[in-house]
Amino acid sequence: MRNALTVDVEDWYMTNGLNIPPSEWHRYDDRVVGSTTGLLDLFDRYKVKGTFFILGSVAQRHPGLIEDIARRGHEIASHGYWHQLVTSQSLEAFREDVRDSKEILERITGRTVTLYRAPSWSMEPERYEALNILAEQGFVCDSSMQPFRTPLSGIAGAPHQPFTPLLNDMETGVIEFPPSVTEVAGMTVPFSGGFYLRAIPYAFVKWALSRVNKTRPGMIYIHPWEIDPGQPRVQTSAFIKLIQYYGLNGTVSKLEQLLNDFSFQPLGEVIRSHTNYPKHRLYTPGYKQAAR
């Protein structure tokens, strides 16, 4: 079973947890080139290709980095432009954000961009209509619905497996590929990326991904800043410090163990290797009442 290897390309100060507005980003130490290049070199050593969900604002500042990612054979995908939660934007602002990110990535690489991931997995019921906008803009896959709830985002009870969304009983034209989770004692347990990958012992991560692979491909996700323990620390709450900084020293080791123990490929290749994704109905707030 070959799993999807994905990277969300953003700098350390762009996270939604730190919540630093883009107008202040110029004040902070720019480290995304070094950390992303570190991941590229790691993937080269293991001869593996992945999907890089890239912010348009990073592409604008560092077009050479985007060219390097493409030149090394990785898949180019959109992470939006300014790393704003989908739920914090109007639908028109979302359309502009994804359009601009798609345009700059395609201009730099000369490749068509058809995969999208929302910042912090923030595709939620009040913005489900954004799926139609993605299809309108030429995207074929969305990887933005986290099937458990966190303080920032997520949808408790959402499907754990990839699926075809039906929005208000209509086809959206995109496939939804959520982050991999497993179930323990009836609870949904995340393990496949970000803080969870850093915090959970590798033995559990290996067991959980092996369990997922009994029925379907899994997906791992990582951020370049998670392999950069030397990144600056900022004053924030104890909770955000935990999420942002815990386990940074061990990220590379866990990635290497995953690359040794499992097979990986870009998300687009995983999607194309499977067909007949189950359909799952999604409803925007108020739709069911209005339809009666």
Please provide a written account of the structure.
- The protein starts with a strand and ends with a helix.
- The chain has a single domain, classed as Glycoside hydrolase/deacetylase (TIM Barrel).
- The relative contact order is 0.19.
- The chain has 292 residues and is of the alpha/beta class.
- It contains 11 helices and 13 strands.
- The chain has helices at 32-45, 56-61, 63-71, 91-109, 130-136, 194-199, 202-212, 238-245, 251-261, 267-272, 287-291; strands at 2-9, 51-54, 75-78, 115-116, 141-142, 164-167, 170-171, 175-176, 181-184, 187-190, 219-222, 263-265, 279-282.
- Strands 1, 2, 3, 11 and 12 form a 5-stranded parallel β-sheet that branches. A 3-stranded parallel β-sheet has the order 4-5-8, with helices on one face. A 3-stranded mixed β-sheet has the order 7-6-13, with no helix packed on it.
- The protein is globular and about 50 Å long.
Overview features:
globular; 292 residues; TIM Barrel; 16% strand; alpha/beta; 11 helices
Low-confidence stretches: none
Q: How many strand units?
A: 13
Work out the strand percent.
15-25%
Head-to-tail CA distance between termini: 44 Å
The fourth-level CATH homologous superfamily is: Glycoside hydrolase/deacetylase
* Structural class by secondary-structure content: alpha/beta
Helical content class: 25-40%
* Overall pLDDT metric: 96
CATH architecture: Alpha-Beta Barrel
Count up the domains: 1
Q: Can you summarize the main beta sheet?
A: 5 strands, parallel
Q: Name the shape in a single word.
A: globular
Report the CATH C-level class.
Answer: Alpha Beta
**Succession of helices and strands:** EHEHHEHEHEEEEEEHHEHHEHEH
Q: What integer value in Å does the Rg equal?
A: 18 Å
Number of helices: 11
CATH topology: the name is: TIM Barrel
